[in-house]
Amino acid sequence: MDTLTRIERAIERFEDALLSKMFPSEPVELLGALRQECDNQAVVCSSRRVLVPNAYDVELSDEVYEELSRHGKQAGQTLTDSLMRHAEKQGYEWAGPLTVHVTKSSRVPNGRYQVAATPLTHIHADAFSDGPQ
Predict the structure, then answer these.
(1) Residue 12 falls in which region: left (phi positive, over 0), alpha (psi -120 to 50) or beta
(2) Which of 130, 127, 35 is nearest to 88 (CA)?
(3) Facing residues of 54 across strands?
(4) What is the per-residue pLDDT across 12-47, written as a single tens digit (0 to 9) for each?
(5) What CA–CA distance (Å, rounded) separates 62 from 41?
(6) Which residues, listed in sequence order, are joined to residue 113 by a DSSP beta bridge?
(7) Which residues pair with 36 in a beta bridge?
(8) Which of 54, 89, 108, 114 could crosslink 94 through cysteines, CB 3.0-4.6 Å?
């Protein structure tokens, strides 16, 4: 198990280094903010079950959004993949399908980005029916 942990950490370091070379420091900080939000919102249900939110809203300042959007969907996918690996490493269980929604906003408090998480359960189509007929 120790070998797998070292490999995971090496992959995370490589990913962070790659992002820092591709972009300014924002994505690396963003990864940390996403991981921290995930950790902060974790709910311990039992000794073997820790539930975390599955819907993450990332608001970016205009400059950061423009910088990240120049690289297409790669940055968004990297954020999602990194968050998925972090949760797996921590043994977290998602409240539903994972989504990371990135938007542009002029109202971010630190002038760069803001991250918020909420647990959204998967809604089944039969939830909208009037019941058994």
Answers:
(1) alpha
(2) 35
(3) none
(4) 766 666 555 555 555 678 888 999 999 999 999 998
(5) 27
(6) 60
(7) none
(8) 54
Nearest of 20, 43, 42 to residue 31 by alpha carbon:
20
pTM: 0.69
Confidence (pLDDT) at 122 = 60
86/22 Cα distance (integer angstroms): 21
Please answer whether residues 87 and 38 qualify as being in contact, where contact means their C-beta atoms are separated by less than 8 angstroms. yes
Burial class (CB in 10 A: 0-12, 13-18, 19+), 20: middle
**Helix or strand holding residue 64 (H, E):** helix 62-69
Which letter does DSSP use for residue 61 in this model?
-
Residue 129 has pLDDT above 70, yes or no: no
C-alpha dihedral sign at 92, 98, 102, 107 = negative
